[in-house]
Amino acid sequence: EVLTLLVLMSPLLRALALHLHSAVTGSYIPGTNSIAFVNCLNEQIAKDIARAIMDKKLAAYVNILPKSSALYFWKGELEESTEILLLVKTRTSKIGELSNYVRSIHPFEIPEIISLPIDQGNPLYLKWIEENVPRD
């Protein structure tokens, strides 16, 4: 009981215990993979960026969602436009590299590149993401 309490209290020990548990059981560690959101001006730019991400093996899967309306503040003014949204499934450890790469090829001055960790899901799909995105 004391050991369990110590493990839960220490983030480093807890992470170590999770990795050990995952290695032994083959289970998914919450947050290992993430979904990144990237906005694009139009479908052609979205396809080009999605293909570039895939060519660099920075993702296992990219959805290109259809045109949607957007409202946002830009330089103090309320703007309205349409955009295409990419949903990028990748390893959480690749988010920094993905963000840097997308910023280097994206035509927007400040492109939206945000991510959320994947807490749970189909274990086979989550494993597939990891198999298709090389480790650092």
Helix content: 40-55%
How many separate domains?
A: 2
| Sequence stretches where pLDDT stays below 50 over 5 or more residues | none
Per CATH, the class of the largest domain reads Alpha Beta
Strand content bin: 25-35%
| H-E order | HHEHEEHEH
Spatial shape: elongated
The CATH architecture of the largest domain would be 2-Layer Sandwich
Structural class: alpha+beta
Instruction: Give the radius of gyration.
Output: 18 Å
Question: What is the CATH third-level topology name of the largest domain?
Answer: Alpha-Beta Plaits
Number of helices: 5
Q: Main β-sheet, in a few words?
A: 4 strands, antiparallel
- How far the N terminus sits from the C terminus, by CA atoms, comes to 36 Å
| Major β-sheet strand ordering | 2-3-1-4
Q: Based on DSSP secondary structure assignment, what is the total number of beta strands? A: 4
Structure in words:
The chain is α+β, with helices and mostly antiparallel strands and 136 residues long. The protein is 42% helix and 31% strand. It is built from five helices and four strands. It has helices at 2-9, 11-25, 43-55, 95-105, 123-132, and strands at residues 33-40, 61-74, 77-91, 113-117. Helix 1 crosses helix 2 (11-25). The model has no long low-confidence stretch (mean pLDDT 90).
